[in-house]
Amino acid sequence: MLRLLLLCIAASCCTGYGINRFKPVIWSKYSFQGKPVFFGLIRENETVVHFDPPLTAHDKDDIGFGQFVCAYHIHRSNPRFRKTIFPFEIVVVDKLIGLAVIRVKTGAAVSAKNKTYFKFAVSARDCGSPARVSDKAHVLIKVVSANDSVSFVRETYLAYVEEGHSPEAILTILPSDVERAVAFNSTCGYEILTPHVPFRLTLQGVLHNTEPLNHLLAKEYFFGVVAKNCRGDHSKPIFVKVVVTAKRNSSHAMASTAMDSGLMDHHLLGDAPELAQASNAHKVKLMMTVTVVTLGTIAVVVIVLLIIFKNRFSKSNYSDVYYDEEAIDLEWDNSTFDLLAPYAKRPRIV
C-alpha cells in the first residue's frame, strides 16, 4: 500500500499535478483600469500583428509544467460579434516566457475599409494539471491600408536635455495625421540613421536616451530618423537635434547665468572659467567682425555681443573710451577666453 502511494506521488510530480501553485501573469507597460493593455498594428497585406511591447506572460512556479505557458484564450465580450468570423488567433512561440504572436487565421483576411479596429480580451493558461488561467488583458489592434505612407508634422526636431539624467522620454516624433499621434500609429517602427548615438525610438515615436548624457563629452547630437512601414519601406528622413545643457550648479554653466537673457546658453563662445564681479564690470556694446577658427573651418560672422569686461576700463583710470569708426578686428585668446584688439587698433584714451 505504501509503495502504491509513493508511485502515485511520483506520477503526480512527473505530470505536474498538485504543484501548480501560481497562475500566469500578463504584464504590459500600458494599463487601463488596472488591467494591462496591448496596442497592435497590422497592414492589410500582412499576417502577423506588430506589438510594442510583445504579448508575454510569466508564471512564478519554478518546477513542474506549471511554470510554462501553453496557450492564450481570446474573450469577445460583445454578444453581437460572437457569431461573426474573427480573423485572429494566438500562437505561443516560447512557453518559458509566455511569448506569443497574434496572426491572421489561414483563409481569413483583414481590411481597413471593412473594419479598422479590433478590441478583445486575452488570458494566458499554463501547462500545469490542473491548469491555471491568468487575469484578462486588453488588446487593441488597428488595421491600416497597405498603401498608407507616413508623413510628419515637421522635418526637424529640437530638444534640450540637462546632462546626467537617467534614460527618459525626450520628445515625440508625430505623424502629420493627428489620429496617428496617439499611443499607436500607422508606422511599424522608426530607425535612427546615425550609428552609435545614445538614443532609441519606440514604436510610438518617443525618443529616449539610453544612458546619462554628459555636456563635456558632447554638447549636442544631430541625427536622421526614418519611419518604417510593416513591409520594410522607409519614409523620407527627418532630422533631430538634441542639445545637452550643463547642470546649473556646474562650473561650465556659470557664464550663462550672468549673461543677458537675450543670449541663449548655446551661443556662448567657450566655457568661461570665471567672471568679473558685477560691481566692477562695464557693459560695452560693440559692432565687430570676429574671425573664428573651428576644426579647420574659417567663418566670418558679423555679430552684436553684450560683453562683460573685467575691471580694465575703470572710471577712476580713464575718462571715456572711444573706438575708431571703422570696424575693429578682434582676436580671440583661447587661454584666457578674452577678446583682444590688435595693438594698432587699441582704444584711444582721452
Automatic annotation (TrEMBL):
Q: What's this protein's name?
A: Calsyntenin-1-like
> What residue range is the signal peptide?
1-16
Key word Transferase present in the record?
Answer: no
According to its UniProt entry, this protein's organism is: Biomphalaria glabrata (Bloodfluke planorb)
GO CC list? cell surface; postsynaptic membrane
Q: Does the keyword rRNA-binding apply?
A: no
Keywords for this protein: Membrane, Signal, Transmembrane, Transmembrane helix
* Chain segments annotated as transmembrane: 286-309
Its GO biological process annotations read: positive regulation of synapse assembly; positive regulation of synaptic transmission
**PANTHER family according to UniProt:** CALSYNTENIN, CALSYNTENIN-1
Coiled-coil ranges per UniProt:
none
